Automatic annotation (TrEMBL):
The lineage of its organism: Archaea, Methanobacteriati, Methanobacteriota, Stenosarchaea group, Halobacteria. Keywords: Methyltransferase, Transferase. It comes from the Archaea. It comes from Halorussus aquaticus. InterPro entries: Methyltransf_25, SAM-dependent_MTases_sf. This is Class I SAM-dependent methyltransferase.
Length: 235
């Protein structure tokens, strides 16, 4: 995985959410959470695995809504942040955080109703391996997002300390086909990249986001979107 050592440091874990989801980044947090909720659907008693759960912002949210959920991550520091978040939300008894390798999931076949990963595949050196493992342990559904090759992110991607793996739709369709997954739905969003929103105050980000959404809803919106949310079913 790209930047694995960087990602696991205590300093990164402690500052992760403040750096990404404050200021204009709050818009990103809300949109990503809504994308997960829309894709997964009813949560009561659903058995869910989150890959690369990080600080648990999705894990805790789904536990609060009735899911039986396991959050898996390679970073012990990130998982500790997640456990603290779960304690504060009063759901520590309703979820489990585990340290583990997404390329070798410690679960039997068809163990979870839904398996999902957000902010993961852009760092994956071997995406086919990870998606195959997600498919193996999923009984019904696999959900994930990608950063897109034909987008503004490609302009500055080379400046990022870890870079990113950018995907075309054809790339994703091949990954799904190879993993025996059937694409059910896809949403495409964010003409402007995440990094732009994180740098500006929320009061400025809101009207810019309105313009961004207008472009997204236009005939060229899907083509230039920075992010895609993929909802696939097990064949």
């Amino acid at each position: 995985m790209k930047g694995a050592e960087w990602y696991q440091t205590d300093e990164v874990a402690e500052e992760y959410e403040e750096k990404r989801f404050s200021r204009g980044g709050r818009l990103i947090d809300r949109r990503e959470k809504q994308a997960v909720l829309d894709a997964i659907g009813p949560l009561e008693d659903k058995n869910v695995l989150e890959i690369a759960c990080g600080t648990g912002r999705f894990t805790v949210m789904l536990a609060e809504r009735g899911a039986d959920i396991v959050g898996l991550d390679i970073s012990a520091a990130m998982l500790q942040q997640g456990r603290q978040k779960a304690q504060s939300a009063g759901v520590a008894d309703h979820l489990e955080f585990m340290r583990g390798d997404a390329g070798r999931l410690p679960f039997p076949d068809d163990h979870f109703d839904t398996v999902f990963a957000m902010r993961f595949f852009h760092l994956a050196d071997t995406p086919a391996t990870f998606l195959s493992e997600m498919r193996r342990v999923a009984k019904e559904q696999v959900v994930f997002d990608t950063f897109n090759a034909r987008s503004t992110r490609s302009v500055y991607n080379w400046l990022l300390p870890m870079g990113s793996h950018l995907y075309t739709r054809a790339d994703v369709e091949k990954l799904l086909d190879d993993a025996d997954l059937r694409l059910v739905d896809a949403e495409h969003d964010w003409i402007l990249p995440y990094g732009f929103y994180r740098k500006i105050p929320g009061a400025i980000a809101d009207p810019i986001r309105d313009v961004d959404t207008t472009i997204r809803d236009s005939p060229v919106g899907d083509y230039f979107a920075s992010v895609s949310y993929w909802n696939a079913r097990v064949e």
